[in-house]
Structures are given as structure tokens and as C-alpha cells.
Amino acid sequence: MYILHFSDFHLFAGDKESAHPRADTVAAVERVLADAASLTPQPDLVLISGDLTDCGTAEDYALARRMLARFAAPVLVVPGNHDRRTAMRGAFEDLVLFEEGQFLNFDVTYQGIRVIGLDTIIPGAVAGELCRDRLDWLSERLADDAARAKATSGVTFLMLHHPPFDLASPSWDAMTLLKGREEFTRLVTGFKGHLRLLTGHVHRPLITTHAGHFAAIAGSPSFQYAPGLGWTGEPPLSSEPYVYWLHHVTGPGQVIVSPRMIDLAAG
Known about the structure:
alpha/beta; Purple Acid Phosphatase, chain A, domain 2; six-stranded mixed β-sheet; five-stranded mixed β-sheet
């Protein structure tokens, strides 16, 4: 099983909302997706950990759907702080089995791979949170033995936009998952199984561990920051190659992670 992890495309069909996205963001994302679609074997799942669009308009999501249509594999998305829940639900409800209600959470199993999607956004804010309702939902999902048994690979991916840990950079740390972080950490610490955390948001590819579990942050083809370790202000932008992650599930509880690098600056 091959699982692709992308994040922070910041696609916009009209005007952009953020200051930094490159003018040729659509072309840059197109190059990334074309590269991913050329892989052999083809991906079995495509996971996108938020900020799929920059403004969250219906036109932005229609553009994203057209660009992602090249994949025969299921595409699963969670919202980022630049996404809009109602528009994202309307655009992806035929692909993603979102839970009913306010939040865009989901829990699906595909060919033995379990993916839990967790909505961490605060509308209008950069930082993330998990309120009591979302924490209770996650607690129930992590404790669901029947759902866990369906994951015959023994692997569960938990995808959320905001990193639930500090990143050694005051600038980045202030916009991670803030409210609900301690309870989240307690819940995942107690999870009995192979759990892998997939996030985005900081526009820099990073790998670490959290609560005893593997964690990966995907970069952004729209714009990337230089290494942010120790920066007290916003890190400068970087023209380094873009990186996305390829997770290869080779056996029960066994995953090999490969970085796929694309030099977008080369055109």
C-alpha cells in the first residue's frame, strides 16, 4: 500500500487571501500532482492535511477537484485555517465520509489502512484547537476496537492540520494546536496500536515523534519557509525543493517513508 501525504496547496481560482502564495501556485501544484500521478506503482490513498485552498470559495474547491481527478485512488482531506467548512463539505462529501454536524471529522478504513481525519480549525484564526466535542469524538474513535480490527495492516493514520507539538520556533509554536493539546496528547499516548500523525500548516517538511508516535509535517508547493528553528519572528521564505511524503506500508505495523523532492524553482 502506497499513501501520499500532501498539505497546504493554497489553490485559488480568483484572488488570493494570503500574502505569500506564488503567482503560479496552480502551475506549481499541477507539477507536483503530475509527478505523483507518474509514480509506479500508483498511490492507493492520497491524504491532504489542510489548506487545500487559499480562500475557501466554491470556485477554489472546484479547481481542486479538477486537479485531483487524475488519481484513481481515494482522496481524503481535512480543513486548514484557510479552508471553509461548508464549502469543503459540499465539494468533497461524495469522496470523504465526513461525520454529520459542525466539524469535518471522519474515520474510514480502506484496504486495511485506517485514516482518522480531525478538524482542528478555529474559523478566522491561525492557531488550532480541539474543543470538548472534538476531543470526545476522538476518544471514542481511538477506543473503537471494532474499527481498529478492520485495519488489518495494523496501521492508523491520524490526520490534522495543526501540529499538536512545539517546533522549537516561537513564531511557529504560536500557531500550532493550542487549546486541547494536553488532552489530545493523553489520548494518543494511550492508543494501543501503530499510530502515525500527519499534519501541515507550517509550510516546512519535518519529521519528529509525539507521544511515542511517528509524526510528519508536509511542506507547501505554494510557498515554503526556511528552517525555522530558533526564529523569534516569521522565518524567511525558501526556494528549496518541495517535498511530499510517500508512506509505503510493507506489512503489519511496518511503514517505510520516502521523501519525494521537486525543484519548483527550476520551472
